[in-house]
């Protein structure tokens, strides 16, 4: 599941909306919406994201959060390390190889550390 997918499911559950109901309202298939939630499809288009925001009737901070999550929800990531130190290439490759072995807690801690160090 992607960060956007998790948030969409949370919003649907909080409002008692099924995937089928939401898909119909957004004029997309429930299969597409499910694939979007589960990371089988890339991030939604800007237009679809705006429709999702309007569907949930969220404003300001929550709408910005959905947009931020959409940017972080592409399930197929490419990391370009050309021109960077060899450590960057090693890090990217190790992450690609080992990410499946990390727990959600490990991922949260590593994300926090990356954000702290990348400032």
Any chance you could write out the topology, listing elements then pairs?
Elements: H1 3-15, H2 19-26, H3 30-37, H4 46-56, H5 60-71, H6 86-98, H7 104-117
Helix pairs in contact: 2-3
In CATH, the homologous superfamily of the largest domain goes by the name lambda repressor-like DNA-binding domains
Q: Overall mean pLDDT score?
A: 93
Largest sheet: none
Shape call: elongated
| Strand count | 0
What's the end-to-end separation, in Å? 27 Å
Helical segment count: 7
How much of the sequence lies in strands comes to under 5%
Tags for this model:
mainly alpha, 119 residues, 0% strand, 2 domains, 434 Repressor (Amino-terminal Domain), 66% helix
Q: How would you describe this structure to a colleague?
A:
- The chain is mainly α and 119 residues long.
- It has helices at residues 3-15, 19-26, 30-37, 46-56, 60-71, 86-98, 104-117.
- It folds into 2 domains: 3-71, lambda repressor-like DNA-binding domains (434 Repressor (Amino-terminal Domain)); 86-117.
- Helix content is 66%, strand content 0%.
- Helix 2 packs across helix 3 (30-37).
- It is elongated.
């Amino acid at each position: 599941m992607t960060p956007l997918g998790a948030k969409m499911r949370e919003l649907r559950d909080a409002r008692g909306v099924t995937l089928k109901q939401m898909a119909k309202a957004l004029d997309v298939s429930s299969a597409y919406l499910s694939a979007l939630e589960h990371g089988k499809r890339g991030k939604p288009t800007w237009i679809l994201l705006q429709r999702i925001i309007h569907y949930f009737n969220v404003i300001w901070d929550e709408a910005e959060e959905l947009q931020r999550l959409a940017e972080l929800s592409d399930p197929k990531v490419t990391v370009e390390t050309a021109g960077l130190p060899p450590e960057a290439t090693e890090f990217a490759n190790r992450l690609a190889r080992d990410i499946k072995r990390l727990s959600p807690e490990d991922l949260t801690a590593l994300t926090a550390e990356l954000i702290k160090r990348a400032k």
